[in-house]
Specification:
Elements: H1 2-10, E1 22-24, H2 36-52, E2 55-59, H3 65-79, H4 83-86, E3 98-100, E4 103-105, E5 111-113, E6 116-120, H5 136-161, H6 168-171, E7 184-190, E8 193-196, E9 201-204, E10 227-229, E11 244-251, E12 255-260, E13 266-269, E14 277-278, E15 286-290, H7 292-297, E16 306-310, H8 315-318, E17 322-329, H9 339-345, H10 349-352, H11 356-364, H12 370-384
Parallel strand pairs: 1-2
Antiparallel strand pairs: 2-15, 3-6, 4-5, 6-7, 7-17, 8-9, 10-11, 11-16, 12-15, 12-17, 13-14, 13-16
Helix pairs in contact: 2-5, 3-5
Length: about 375
C-alpha cells in the first residue's frame, strides 16, 4: 500500500516530470586539470539551467558513492559518542570549524538533538583525536578536498557560461578551505522523526540508521548560519506533513553542492514563480543551486534559489534517519562582489556594447567584499528572527 502511494506522489516531483536539468561531468569533476571540452560543455549547460531553474543535478561528478557512505559512517560514530566527549569538538564562534551543537527542549523539559552537524572550514588544522574516532580526520579531509576540486571545476564552467576567462572565478575562490574564505563542508545527520500520539507532538528519535535504497525526495539540510531566510517562512506548512526541517531561504555564497543518502522533502521556488514544488531524488547525483553572491555578481542572471525542506507526510519516510553533506562555496573574503567585473571581463561583443547607463548605475551602488556581505546578511537574519 505504501509503495503504491509513493509511486503516485513521486509523479508530482519536478524530477518525475522531466523538468530538472541533469548535467553529466564525465567523471572529470575532481581532476586537478579537467578536460577543457568537458568544462566548456558543462558551462553551456549551466548557462541554460541556472537562469531557468536556479539549480541542476550533477551526475558522474567524480566523488565515489562508497566514499560518501564511509563519511556517513564516521559521522554516525561521532554522533554515538557521549555528550561530554562531543563537547571537546564544539566549533569556535569565529571559524565554525568542528561540531555544531543544536538541541531543542520538549514539553517535559527533555533535550533532544535537532541535528548533528560537523563543519570542515579548513584543511590546515587538526581537531579530531584519533583515539575515539579512528580514521575520521583523514577520510573527511580527503572528502573535503574532493568537494573543493569539484567546486573548482564548477567555477571554471561558470566562468565559461558567463563568457569570461576560464580561470576568472576560480582565482577569486582560490583560498577555499585554507583560510580567508568562508567556504565549508558540512556533515549532517537528522535523527528520525517520531510522533507521540498521546500528545500529538513530533520529536527526534535516537541515532539509528541502516543504508537503504533511495526512492523519493532529496533532503536539503542547510545550516542556518549559511542561509538567508525569505519572507515565506511557513507558507503552506502548517499540517503535520507540512512542518518544516528548514524554512524558506536562499544560500549566501556563490553556490552550494549537496549530496544525500536518502529521501526527504526538498521544495523549491523556480525563478519567477511563487509556487513551492517538490524536487525528487536521483540516487548518486549532487544537487547544485545558485547562491546570493552569484546572483549579485550576475545581476540576477543566475538567481539565488529559494528553497525549503518540509517534514515528509509519509510515516515510513519520517521515521528514517537521514544524512547529507553540503559544500558551501564562497569567494575569498577580500573579493569584491562587483557586477561590473563580469561586464568588463566578458569576451563577447554583446556584453561590451550594452548600454552605458546601466553600467553607470551599477558603479554608483556601494560594492561590498564577500566577507562584508555575509556579515551583513548574518546581522539582517539575526535582527529578523
Amino acid at each position: 500500500m505504501l509503495r503504491g502511494k509513493s509511486v503516485v506522489e513521486d509523479s508530482d516531483t519536478l524530477l518525475a516530470k522531466g523538468l530538472i536539468p541533469i548535467i553529466d561531468l564525465a567523471h572529470c569533476g575532481t581532476e586537478e586539470h579537467p578536460v577543457k571540452s568537458v568544462v566548456n560543455r558543462v558551462g553551456l549547460q549551466l548557462q541554460k539551467a541556472l537562469p531557468e531553474k536556479g539549480f541542476a543535478l550533477l551526475v558522474n561528478h567524480g566523488i565515489l558513492e562508497e566514499k560518501l557512505k564511509v563519511a556517513w559512517q564516521h559521522l554516525d560514530n561521532f554522533c554515538s559518542l557521549s555528550s561530554d566527549v562531543k563537547e571537546h569538538y564544539i566549533n569556535n564562534i569565529e571559524g565554525y570549524h568542528g561540531y555544531n551543537q543544536n538541541e531543542e527542549e520538549n514539553s517535559e523539559g527533555e533535550h533532544h538533538e535537532l541535528r548533528y552537524a560537523f563543519n570542515i572550514t579548513t584543511l590546515k588544522i587538526s581537531n579530531v583525536h584519533e583515539d575515539p574516532l579512528p580514521g575520521f580526520e583523514e577520510h573527511i579531509n580527503e572528502l573535503a578536498h574532493d568537494f573543493k576540486l569539484l567546486a573548482g571545476f564548477i567555477l571554471q564552467s561558470l566562468a565559461v557560461s558567463l563568457d569570461l576567462n576560464q580561470s576568472f572565478l576560480y582565482e577569486k575562490h582560490c583560498h577555499m578551505l585554507s583560510g580567508d574564505n568562508e567556504s565549508k563542508l558540512c556533515l549532517l545527520y537528522y535523527p528520525p522523526i517520531l510522533e507521540d500520539n498521546e500528545k500529538n507532538e513530533l520529536f527526534k528519535g535516537r541515532l539509528q540508521y541502516t543504508y537503504q535504497k533511495c526512492a523519493s525526495d532529496t533532503p536539503d539540510f542547510r545550516p542556518e548560519s549559511d542561509c538567508y531566510k525569505t519572507s515565506d517562512v511557513s507558507e503552506g506548512a502548517t499540517a503535520l506533513g507540512q512542518q518544516l526541517y528548514s524554512s524558506g531561504h536562499i544560500d549566501y555564497g556563490t553556490f552550494t553542492l549537496l549530496a544525500q543518502d536518502s529521501e526527504g522533502g526538498l521544495e523549491v521556488k523556480l525563478p519567477g514563480s511563487e509556487k513551492w514544488q517538490r524536487v525528487g531524488h536521483l540516487p548518486g547525483s549532487i544537487f547544485i543551486n545558485a547562491g546570493e553572491m552569484l546572483s549579485i555578481w550576475t545581476e540576477n542572471r543566475y538567481p539565488a534559489l529559494s528553497h525549503r525542506v518540509i517534514i515528509p507526510e509519509q510515516e515510513h519516510l519520517r521515521v528514517r534517519g537521514r544524512h547529507s553533506i553540503a559544500f558551501f562555496c564562497h569567494p575569498d573574503n577580500i573579493t569584491m562582489i562587483d557586477p561590473t567585473d563580469i561586464h568588463h571581463n566578458s569576451s563577447t561583443e554583446d556584453d561590451l556594447t550594452k548600454p552605458r547607463k546601466k553600467h553607470v548605475k551599477i558603479a554608483k551602488e556601494k560594492v561590498y567584499n564577500a566577507y562584508q556581505l555575509i556579515k551583513r546578511r548574518f546581522k539582517k537574519t539575526s535582527n529578523s528572527s
